[in-house]
């Protein structure tokens, strides 16, 4: 037999050997990870749910998925055992690397009043005094100074009646032709 004809078979067998070896290695690592679980450990299931391990049995684990809510999962359903720092960062939003001092954190105001205080200080009048003065002038003005604004509603109503009249004439046999 020619060695050139055997070469594809040898390459195929070698590739299968390497693939099965890496798959077995991954399975062994996953089994070791699942065996390292103990109560209090944070885990992520293969469905993407984060939980805390409460009890570990031979084939199952009891997970606390929310405070007071427990569920039994198969060990194979645990996708990853997380370190405490990573679990707290993901679930609780606590970043252990972040050391924030209160003096370094910028203060964000709830409203815009602190932004306008500097402008108000130069005028001598407070914004409350200005608002009171505006309210008094509105009360003095009353309803006597209110002018009606013509919105053209009467003209639109008249146009609508003439349009409906011309449509009635068309139904009766009239035309627009002149």
Automatic annotation (TrEMBL):
Gene name of the encoded protein: yajC
Annotated spans, Disordered: 94-178
Cell location: Cell membrane
Key word rRNA-binding present: no
Protein name (record): Preprotein translocase subunit YajC
InterPro entries: Preprotein_translocase_YajC
Keywords noted in UniProt: Cell membrane, Membrane, Protein transport, Translocation, Transmembrane, Transmembrane helix, Transport
Highest taxon in the source lineage: Bacteria
Bias (Basic and acidic residues): 127-156, 167-178
Lipid bilayer topology: Single-pass membrane protein
Membrane spanning stretches: 6-23
Comp. bias (Low complexity): 103-125
């Amino acid at each position: 037999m020619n060695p050139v004809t055997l070469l594809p078979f040898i390459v195929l067998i070698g590739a299968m050997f390497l693939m099965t070896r890496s798959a077995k290695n991954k399975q062994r690592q996953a089994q070791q990870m699942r065996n390292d679980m103990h109560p209090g450990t944070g885990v992520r299931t293969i469905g993407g749910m984060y939980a805390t391990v409460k009890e570990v049995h031979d084939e199952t684990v009891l997970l606390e998925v929310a405070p007071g809510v427990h569920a039994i999962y198969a060990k194979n359903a645990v996708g990853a055992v997380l370190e405490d720092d990573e679990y707290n960062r993901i679930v609780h939003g606590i970043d252990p690397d972040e050391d924030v001092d209160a003096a370094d954190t910028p203060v964000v105001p709830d409203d815009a009043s602190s932004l306008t205080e500097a402008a108000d200080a130069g005028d001598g009048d407070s914004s409350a005094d200005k608002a009171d003065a505006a309210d008094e002038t509105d009360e003095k003005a009353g309803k006597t100074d209110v002018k009606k604004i013509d919105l053209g509603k009467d003209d639109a109503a008249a146009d609508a009646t003439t349009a409906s009249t011309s449509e009635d004439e068309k139904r009766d046999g009239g035309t627009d032709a002149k």
